[in-house]
Amino acid sequence: MSPLYTQAKQSLLLNSPDSVFRAQKVSEWTGTFDLPQPVADYYTELGPVDVHIPGYGNPYFLPSLASLWKFQAGYRYHPETSERFEGWDDEWLVIADEGGDAFIYSRNDTTISHAYHGEGVWSPKPLFASIEHMAACFSIMGEIAGSAGLDFTDSESFILPCYIEEAEARMTEITKDSSHTERVLTRLGWLHD
Question: Please, what is the Cα angle at 82 between 80 and 88, to 5 degrees?
Fold first, then answer.
């Protein structure tokens, strides 16, 4: 198993013991194209089953493989008519979300981009080098937010600096680039310009 998936699963189970993780078989995929190997590995090794991870505001949501194609509704296709939306790149697969903001796996280069919901046009920005990086960073942010509880933010609802510093240090161990970590935390609202 990937060390990042092992670390993420241990952290997530420690902070959300009711979360379900199990190896999921490719046969559970109901999409219209073959499941990319890195996505299959993610579901075999980490195996989230509709997992909610505490965040800053909305939780991060990791759908099960069986519900992943249905999870594309509202992004790739209309939820009622199943009509494909114009402007949605066929290479994109929404692998997670945060309050509708999409974390998009690229079948072209296996990276994860992030796009804000409700902007009118999807404009994903590169965020993580891989699904493994995404899962590990979510687990760190979830662990910090979950363990801090009500002490996570100040009276104006900004994350306390000690938690931002902890996230930066721990995530940089994964990303190997402090400026990249800052971009991730800024994009996800933990840091402000």
Answer: 120
